[in-house]
Amino acid sequence: MNPRTLAALCALTSVAFASPAQVVINEVHENPPGSGTDPAWEYIELYGRPGMSLTGYAVALIKGGNEFGAPAEVDEAFHLDGLVIGTNGLLVLYNNTGGSSFIPARVAPGTTLATFSAQHIPTTDTPGNLANDDSSTYVLMRRRPLHSVSGSTSVYAPGYAWRKDINPDIDWNSRVDLPDHPAGGLTLEGYQMVDDASWSHQGGKEYTRDNQQEISTTAGFNPDAIARVRYYGSNPKRGHRFNSEGQVVFSRMADEEFIYGDLLSVPGLGFDPARSDGPTDPAGPRYDGSCDPDTSGVCAPNPSGTYLFKPVNLSGFALTPGNFNDGGVSAITQFRWVTGDFNFDGVADVEDLHLINQRLGASLDDTQIISDDNNTPDDAGDDFTYTGYKWQGREFNALLAMMNMAPTDGPGGANAPTVTGADITAHMNLIRTGEYLDMVNGRR
Length: 444
Description:
This protein is of the alpha+beta class. The protein has 2 domains: about 1-15 and about 340-444, no CATH class; about 25-335, no CATH class. It is built from 7 helices and 20 strands. The chain has helices spanning about 5-15, 40, 115-120, 255, 350-360, 395-405, 420-440; strands spanning about 25-30, 45-50, 60-65, 75-80, 90-95, 110-115, 135-140, 145-150, 155, 195-200, 215, 225-230, 240, 250, 260-265, 270-275, 285, 305-310, 365-370, 385-390. The strands form 6 sheets. A 7-stranded mixed β-sheet has the order 6-5-2-1-12-15-16. Helix 1 (about 5-15) packs antiparallel against helix 7 and helix 5 (about 350-360) runs antiparallel to helix 7. The two termini are about 20 Å apart. The model is unreliable at about 1-15 (pLDDT under 50).
């Protein structure tokens, strides 16, 4: 072996212990097809770093009410204390409230399993099924108002609100109520969002931090399930949609990250291609923007058009509880975390090195003063500020990955609670090694 190649491989070995440290909502099966099947088939799946502790984290379903007068509510909320991501990178939280579930028998070895009942955040109500109708928002969170962790157990102070049956939006303005909500109520805002996704149904509200995480096209169906296949740092602008004003705009990030829609049956769990949607097919038919192929049965493609609306072929693609979301006739492959990739473009390079250098000294608990216009942007008289968490969503997951580049850089060989110089050095060695091996192997 060439001595320089050997040296490069040794350098690679020296940083090989660094593994990606992120966690996201990967699959949700909210409304199993068929009568009475909900308790046996419902689940929420997370994808993250194998062995990552989720103590202090929680996942909640917010139902956004509907145009017929139903209020918003936290439908279900589950703590993740005492759980770690499985050795295969997956954790499945499944509904056992009906006495039995088909999900444990479906998962792959290495998946962490936990039940709705065991992880139910204490309330006066009992854990139940994920509500099927009205808008849905799934939120994976870490810090929450009036919540703390003692050892490996959550402590809920009086007034804690992220629990079942709480109305998170008293004035129904599509925002989780803020600390000085004029109508009073419990405090939910100030929570630290790790990941979220939503879709609308029957005119209900959605509660993602950014509308890029709202699935925009559910014409003709209320999704039974969602399955993540991509994770972007910013909108890839691969497809198009008509907005509420009838204008052609780019599809949202959530449209390009998830496959979503109705399922054909259980136990098959296959998506119905006629009542599902997903990432845009770059080789699909082009349209001129004069009509909406998602809502018009007579909208024909135009070879000279520039707009893409159709998803990849979803035939054969199915939910895979406790397994990666791979499959279907199009050989769809779920994204995998890439060590050192902080902007989530699929490679670790100098752009990521620039990002980690900017985060030196940053911790997950950093806060900042957040200004809010109280949903009245033209009226400055009711604006206010509150203290919120600085790192959320993509930036939270990027910071997790940065902190884990050198996972023994803290006292006693533990992982330091901030991004350190050792993390930056490990990342620098990683990308230098990758660039050198590319050169040696003729890829540069």
